[in-house]
Amino acid sequence: MDLTFSTPLKGNLVLCGDYRDAQLLRRPDLYKFVWVRQGRLLLEVDHIPLELQAGELVPLTPLHSLEVTAVDGEYLILAFDSNFYCIFGHDGEVSCSGLLFNGTSGVLRLALSEARTAALQRVVDELLAEYEVADGLREEMLRMQLKRFIIICTRIARERFSIGADREKLFDTVRRYYVLVDAHFRTKKRVQEYAELLHRSPKTLANLFASCGQPSPLSIIHDRVNAEARRLLLYTARSAKEIAYLLGYEDTAAFSRFFAKMNGESITEFRQREKRE
Questions:
Q1: Which CATH number fits domain 167-276: 1.10.10.10, 1.10.10.60, 2.40.50.100, 3.40.50.2300?
Q2: What average pLDDT does the structure give for the chain?
Q3: Alpha helix stretches (DSSP H) within the chain
Q4: Which CATH architecture fits 3-160?
Q5: Which of 15, 68, 165, 267 is most buried when burial is the number of CB atoms within 10 A of its CB?
C-alpha cells in the first residue's frame, strides 16, 4: 500500500506501509500519522522508545525525529507537508493545531474503536482510489480525504479528553495555549505572559487545564523548552552555551540547572549516554 503525490507547488502527500523503504518520509518538514493495524510496532520518537499496539495511532509534527526499530505486524504512515495542506491556515476546518500537533516530546496516543477504525479505513481506501484517477481534480480530492482523516483523529482526541460540544470553545483556549507556547517558548517562560495573550488569568488557565485532563500550564512551557533543548543536544553540535542562548537563557548555569531538573542528569551526561546508546 503505497502512494506518493507531489503538487506543482512542491506539496507532498505520502501513504506507505514501510517507513524504512520510503525515502520521502525522511524529509524534515512532514506531519505524520503512524497507525498500527495489526501486531505491534516499536518506535523511537526523539530518541524516546515507544511501543504501539494494534488499534493505536500517533500524530507527529515535523519537529519529531522518528525511527522504526522493530515491526511485528502491519502499520500505515500517512504524511503530508504544509505546502499540501497547511493545518494553521485551515485550523477552522480541522481544529487540530495544539491538539494533535504540538512541539513537546510527549506523544499523543489515540486508541481506535471499531467504528473509528472503519472510518479511517474508508478514508485510506478513498485516497488509494483517487490516486489512480489521473485528472486535474485528483489533487483536491486527495486533499479532501486527508482533511477527513485529520478531522476523524481530532474527534478521537476530543473524546479522549471528554470534550463534548458544550466544551469545544473552552478547549479551544487549551489548543491556542499550546500553539502560543510553540511560537514563543524561547522568549516567554511565565504563564502570566500567555494568560495575557489569551485574555485570561493564570488561575483560570490552571483550572481549565485541570478540568480537561491536561498538564499544568507551567509544565507545558517547561516540557516545550526541554524538548527543544534535547533536540538541539541530540541533532546539532552546538555547545550548552549556544543552546542556552537560543532558548532565551542569558545565564548558561540557569539553563544547566533547568535541564538537570527536567531530565535527572546533566547536559554532559545526557550527551555521553546518547552517544553510547
A1: 1.10.10.60
A2: 93
A3: 91-94, 114-131, 138-160, 168-184, 191-198, 202-211, 217-235, 240-246, 252-263, 267-276
A4: Sandwich (2.60)
A5: 15
